[in-house]
Amino acid sequence: MSLQQTLVLAILPELPRYLGTGADNASWLVTGTLVAGAVAIPTLSRLADMFGKKRMMLITLGLVIAGSMLGGFTDGLPLVIAGRALQGVGVAIVPIGISIMRDELPEQRLPLGVALMSATLAIGGAVALPLSGLLVSRLNWHSIFWITAVAGVVLFVAVALIVPPSDVRSGGSFDYPGAIVLSLAITTVLLGLTKGSSWGWWSARTIAVTVVGLALLVVWVPIERRARNPLVDLRVSTLPPILLVNTTSILAGFATFANYVATPQILQLDARTGYGLGLDPLRSGLWMMPSALTFGAMAPAAAWLIRRIGAKATLLVGVLVLMVTYVVRIYAGPSLGPTVVATVVVAVGASMSYAAMPSLIMASVPETETAAANGLNVLLRTVGTAAASTALAALTTGIIVTVEDAPYPSADAFTAFFWLAAGTAAIAVLLTLALMRTPAGGVTASR
Q: What is the rounded average pLDDT of the residues 51-67?
């Protein structure tokens, strides 16, 4: 899932030429994937709790395979966007997979399982950057879809043969009104976030889309409170421990993703700017890989910390590392050595944070709500990552410097962005300190 989400990013500047369209139209290959994933997470997570996690994982993989094949065998922009949207549904695999682990793994092995799965998110994203450049240079741009189609087929067979079906189900009827209204709300809010830089932040379209999305969220709350089997159990989601973890998830998602959207730009920007390092996409991706390997290597350490000092303390250490690293990075400058070291240390903090949050969620919800609760957490983390991308786009297009008559993002834009990332991590620290004062446990009985 992580691989397919990121593969297209490295060739995004070339996609208008490949598809014979403008940059704004080509950007829908990213926006469509993000929106489809955000809609799929709560819907498929709830269906997994109701009708079986293995079944919904296989359905999700089937949609990913279909999207990959569609993108791999067409040159038409609408069909490629549709393929990317189907691929975006794959993000629902994360909460469903975590809930399967809760059902199948002994309690002492669960933290390691969750930490390893969280680590693969960074590993897939980092591997995708150099891999996409290599595939496109040796084959063609369709190959980024072929590789995910093949991987999807292999995983579909593996899940079908190896993953056992779970008897832990919530039952009840599906909340169609809640799902429709929430999907519309998520879609419109994310459209405002992701398209604001091209539409204009204060344009009538951006404001209208954002306001409609927020209004739909307001309408959605009473719908969920009245539903017999709500898509998102607000009674559980507003418990102090879960509310604090989910809010921290938004902030940690922003702080973590800030590293992965800003660093490649700095590595690839023209060296004449005075801070860009002038690397090509392949070498830039290779220098990002140490952070991905660190994320994976930290998984056992994060699991050990959760068992040793608890998930709350592990989360606190993680967000503290994120906060301090961004402050140090601002003063260390943009040279290659400090930049790579900073990406590695951010991966250390993110690994601890991403491993701790699902553990805290599962400690506070009944087994029959695991996928839905983790789905909401992953959804909010996605909102944080979208906000990071949006903030960077706004800063780098608004604070520019001209070098030999060519406009480039100013170094001040990246400094402001890293201060913003440090600030979001600092708020996450305060929320985690408040979380540590809340009693352990939560809702333990099924509805």
A: 94
Which residue has tokens 């450049």?
Answer: 133
Residues 44, 96 contacting (CB under 8 angstroms): yes
| Cα gap 398→179, rounded to integer Å | 37
Query: Do the Cβ atoms of 293 and 346 come closer than 8 Å?
Result: no
Residue corresponding to tokens 């490949």: 18
Question: How many angstroms from the chain centroid is the CA of residue 277?
Answer: 27
Residue for token pair 């002038």:
278
Strand partners, 395: none
- Residues found in the chain: 447
* CA distances from residue 259 to 126, 325, 340 in whole angstroms, order as listed: 11, 10, 10
Burial of 265 (0-12, 13-18, 19+ CB in 10 A): middle
What pTM was computed for the model?
0.83
Neighbour count for residue 202 (Cβ, 10 Å): 8
Q: What is the dihedral of CA 86, 87, 91, 92, to 10 degrees?
A: 40
Asked whether 269 and 277 are in contact (CB, 8 A), the reply is yes
Indicate the SS3 state at residue 400.
Answer: strand
Confidence class of residue 443 from pLDDT cuts 50, 70 and 90?
very low
More confident residue, 406 or 38: 38
User: CA angle at residue 438 from 436 to 441, to 5 degrees?
Assistant: 105
Domain residues of the chain, as ranges?
2-175+227-435
Taking only the tens place, the pLDDT of each residue in 134-156 is 777 778 888 889 988 999 999 99
> pLDDT value at position 445?
39
Transcribe 37-103 into DSSP letters: HHHHHHHHHHHHHHH-HHHHHHHHHHHHHHHHHHHHT---HHHHHHHHHHHHGGGGHHHHHHHHHHH
Tokens 């009538």, residue?
Answer: 204
Tell me if the domain spanning 2-175+227-435 has CATH number 3.40.630.30. no
Neighbour count for residue 81 (Cβ, 10 Å): 22
Phi, psi dihedrals of residue 29, rounded to the nearest 5°:
-65, -25
Compute the average pLDDT of residues 376-380: 86
3-state secondary structure of 168: coil
Whether pLDDT at 442 is above 60: no
* Distance separating alpha carbons of residues 158 and 198, to the nearest angstrom: 42
Q: Which of 406, 407, 410, 402 has the alpha carbon at shortest distance from 276?
A: 410
